[in-house]
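Hey team,

Sharing the Divalent-cation tolerance protein CutA run so nobody has to redo it. Sequence (112 residues) first:
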Amino acid sequence: MPHIVFLYATAPDPQTAASLARTLVEERLIACGNVLLGLRSVYRWEGAVTEESEAALLCKTTADRADAALARLAELHPYEVPAISRFDAANALPAFAAWIADEVTSRSSPPA
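Structure output:
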């Protein structure tokens, strides 16, 4: 069974999160990205406590693709210091893990 990894990131709005997810899916770095709405973040930035509305992005990939997906997510992200974390899944449903692995496997284009 493939080793499954989740990448978690916050984004300034749902549109940005969806755009990040779409690019990573199109590039076969992730199988799926879930955009979670209604996130309210409270944090300290440059010495001041800040509170902002954000969206969360949960990406599903394999351990083999996780480093590349994380690097690409950081490259595309609009934040100066994006909040991106990696979580390794311990017990994914085998069929789900197989689907993720299949989706992030590079495939050649079908003949024209």
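The CA atoms of residues 54 and 80 lie 15 Å apart.

Ping me if you want the raw files.
A.
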